[in-house]
Design a protein that fits this description.
The protein is an alpha/beta fold and about 260 residues long. It contains 6 helices and 17 strands. The N and C termini lie far apart (about 35 Å).
């Protein structure tokens, strides 16, 4: 289903990937490999989990580094489990609390190999439109050190989008498909990014809603208007300009 829908690059660093322990993680990895979907953020040990995903598309090499909060929480289970990968333990890549030399080194190593470098972070306040000052500072540090796109998730609701130095920070795009009942948790955005000579030249947001917990449907007319207007207000708080055109958000990139 993911392959048919066009997915080709995913982040596995999150607080559910080991819900079925190592067996579930390893099954996921094998299925992704079988269908040619690149991934990063989790593996059979820390070295493997930290490996970036690199995808060649239309002459561009696109790289993805993935990290998650909550990696060192001990979760209930039989046995109890902590998700963080170690030298000899399967798991996910922990996001450092503050921007540090380890993540800087990850970026510097990948920067040499790719045209577009993306970082995906599983973080933020659940069930909230709020973005913390520490998140903003961390995201700015990522871009200041060579990242082109930041793709974030975990709050289950879409949050504001910031354009920092011409580069997008998606603090949370909301759920794509998830089995939650709150209408605000069924709203999200699909973002279209166009790059030219490794520079982002166009950014559009398509509002979508999960229907019946199984199907993602682009929203039109009045169904789109409320989602779009709320996102404009959230983006304004981050000094990001955007407007509604043909049931989509079109962003001012300042270039």
């Amino acid at each position: 289903g993911l392959e048919f829908a066009g997915f080709n690059l995913v982040n596995l660093a999150n607080n559910h990937i080991l819900d079925y322990y190592e067996e579930g993680l390893f099954d996921t990895i094998e299925i992704l490999k079988e269908h040619g979907i690149a991934f990063s953020g989790a593996g059979k040990n820390l070295e493997e989990a930290k490996k970036p995903a690199i995808l060649e598309k239309k002459g561009y090499n696109i790289g993805l580094l993935s990290y998650t909060d909550m990696a060192e929480i001990i979760y209930k289970g039989n046995p109890q489990i902590m998700f963080a990968a170690r030298e000899n333990k399967a798991g996910v890549v922990k996001r450092p609390i503050t921007f540090d030399d380890s993540i800087k080194s990850d970026i510097e190593s990948l920067r040499k190999e790719v045209d577009i470098l993306m970082v995906s972070l599983h973080w933020g306040i659940e069930e909230s439109f709020e973005i913390t000052e520490s998140q903003v500072e961390f995201a700015h540090n990522l871009i200041d050190n060579g990242v082109d796109v930041i793709l974030d998730h975990h709050p289950h609701q879409f949050q504001g989008i910031e354009i920092y130095k011409g580069k997008p920070i998606f603090y949370s795009l909301g759920n794509f498909i998830f089995d939650q009942n709150d209408p605000e948790n069924q709203e999200a955005f699909i973002m279209n990014m166009e790059f030219r000579d490794n520079v982002l030249v166009s950014l559009e947001g398509i509002p979508v809603r999960t229907i019946g917990k199984t199907q993602v449907v682009p929203q039109k007319g009045e169904n789109a208007k409320n989602i779009l207007e709320r996102e404009i207000a959230l983006c304004k708080k981050l000094n990001t300009g955007c407007e509604i055109k043909d049931d989509k958000l079109v962003f001012d990139l300042g270039n």
